[in-house]
Write a structure and sequence with these properties.
Length: 359
C-alpha cells in the first residue's frame, strides 16, 4: 500500500439552517473593504429571492450566477478568473461556491487559478499547482459527488477531462446545510446520489481498499441504502444523503474509483454526458464486474421509477468509439484498482466497445 499524506477540509459546519452562519464565518477572512468575496452560485437560485437575499453581501462583494448545464471547462475557469481580476484592483478575500459538484469544482478551480499564472489547462494532473489558492468555501446544494471533501476539481479541457489534483485544492471551509437541497428534482437527486453509491461500490470492491477507506465507504453505503431503499422522512433523507456524500468522498480519497468512472469519463468527454447520469448509464451494464452492487442499483432504480436513456452510443462512428475508449483506458489507476495490476490482459478495446455499444 502506498501512503498518502493528504489535506482535509479545514473547517466544516453541519445542520439544517447552518447556511445562515455564512456571514459570521467569512467575516474574519475579509482582507479589507476593497477585497471582495465572490459568490459563484448555481443559476437555478437566480430567481429564488428568498434564498439569494440570505447571501451576506458587503462592500463590493459580487454574486456571479453560473449555469450547471455543462460541466466545468478549463476555458470557463480562465474566463472567470480574468473577469474577477479585471473587476477588482486587488485579489478577492475569498471565493464561495454554492451549488452542486459543478459549482463546487468551479469555486475550487477559480480560487487556485487566481494565484497560479497561465491557463488552468496547464495544471490538469497531479500536484502541478505551485501556489496556495485564495480562501475558498464550498456549500453543496445537492448531495452525492463528494466534491465538497475532495482534493480535486474536475475540468474538461481541449485534450482531456482531468482534475486539478493538489494539496491546495480542498476547501478551507464547508457548510453542510441539508435544507439547501430542497428544490432538487427527483431524477437529478437519484443521479447525483448514485454517484455516491457508485463511489462506495467501486472503493469497497477495489484492490486499493484499506481500513481507512473501508470505514468511510461502509458508512456511506449504509446511508445510501437507507436513503434509496428505506422509508425515511424527507428531512432525515436529506441529512443522511449529505453525510453519505461526505463519507463516500472520504472513502475514495484513500482508495480509488473504478470501471464506471473510467467509462463514464470517456462518454462525458465525447458526448458531454454529465457525471451523475453518465455513471448510472454505465454502471447499469457492469454486472460482470460488480454483481451485487449492480443488483442493488437496479432495485433502487426500480423503486424510484428511474428510466435511463438508452442507445446513446448506438450511432457512433468507429472514430468516436476510439475517443471514448482512449479516455477510459488512459485512467490506469482506476482499472488497476478495479481489476488488478494485469488489467490490460483482461480489458481490451473490443470488450470496451461491446460494453459501450449496449449503452
Ligand atoms: P451539478 O452541479 O452538475 O448540478 C446538477 C443539476 O442540479 C443542475 O441542473 C443544477 O442546477 C441542479 N441543482 C443543484 N442544486 C440544486 C437545488 N438545490 N435545487 C434545484 N436544482 C439544483 O451536479 P452534481 O452531480 O452535483 O455535480 C456534477 C459535477 O461534479 C461534474 O462536473 C463532475 O465532474 C463533478 N464531480 C466532482 C468531484 C470532485 O471530487 N471534485 C467528484 C464527482 C463529481
Ligand atoms: Zn463520481
Amino acid at each position: 500500500m502506498s501512503f498518502k499524506n493528504f489535506p482535509m477540509v479545514a473547517k466544516v459546519v453541519f445542520g439544517r439552517g447552518s447556511f445562515n452562519l455564512l456571514g459570521e464565518i467569512i467575516a474574519p477572512k475579509r482582507k479589507n473593504e476593497q477585497a471582495p468575496f465572490i459568490f459563484l452560485v448555481d443559476d437555478v437560485f437566480e430567481s429564488q429571492t428568498a434564498f439569494t437575499s440570505k447571501i451576506p453581501l458587503l462592500y463590493s462583494d459580487q454574486v456571479i450566477f453560473i449555469s450547471a448545464n455543462e460541466e466545468p471547462k478549463t476555458s470557463q475557469v480562465d474566463a472567470l478568473v480574468e473577469k474577477i481580476i479585471l473587476n477588482s484592483s486587488i485579489l478577492p478575500s475569498g471565493i464561495i461556491g454554492i451549488g452542486g459538484g459543478s459549482l463546487l469544482d468551479l469555486a475550487k478551480a477559480v480560487a487556485l487559478m487566481l494565484t497560479n499564472s497561465g491557463s488552468s489547462e496547464a495544471y490538469q494532473g497531479w500536484d502541478l499547482i505551485k501556489n496556495k489558492g485564495i480562501y475558498h468555501v464550498g456549500i453543496p446544494t445537492i448531495s452525492g459527488t463528494g466534491a465538497e471533501v475532495s482534493r480535486t476539481t474536475i475540468l474538461t479541457g481541449p485534450t482531456m477531462k482531468l482534475g486539478l489534483n493538489s494539496d491546495f485544492t480542498p476547501f478551507d471551509q464547508v457548510i453542510l446545510d441539508p435544507e439547501l437541497t430542497e428544490g432538487v428534482s427527483k431524477d437529478q437527486w437519484f443521479y447525483t446520489g448514485m454517484d455516491c453509491y457508485i463511489h462506495c461500490i467501486e472503493s469497497l470492491n477495489g484492490n486499493f481498499i484499506n481500513s481507512f477507506s473501508k470505514t468511510y465507504g461502509e458508512t456511506a453505503l449504509q446511508l445510501c441504502e437507507e436513503v434509496f431503499l428505506g422509508s425515511l422522512g424527507l428531512e432525515e433523507s436529506q441529512d443522511k444523503l449529505m453525510m453519505a456524500s461526505w463519507h463516500g468522498g472520504m472513502s475514495i480519497a484513500y482508495s480509488q474509483v473504478g470501471i464506471a468512472h473510467a467509462m463514464s469519463y470517456g462518454m462525458s468527454f465525447l458526448l458531454g454526458t454529465k457525471h451523475g447520469i453518465g455513471n448510472c448509464i454505465v454502471f447499469d451494464h457492469l454486472e460482470a464486474f460488480y454483481p451485487e452492487g449492480v443488483k442493488l442499483f437496479k432495485k433502487m432504480k426500480k423503486k424510484h421509477n428511474i428510466t435511463l436513456p438508452k442507445g446513446i452510443c448506438a450511432n457512433l462512428t468507429t472514430q468516436q468509439y476510439d475517443i471514448m475508449i482512449d479516455v477510459a483506458l488512459s485512467l490506469e489507476p482506476l482499472w488497476e484498482n478495479a481489476i488488478g495490476k494485469d488489467w490490460k490482459s483482461q480489458i481490451t478495446r473490443s470488450s470496451l466497445k461491446d460494453l459501450y455499444s449496449k449503452m
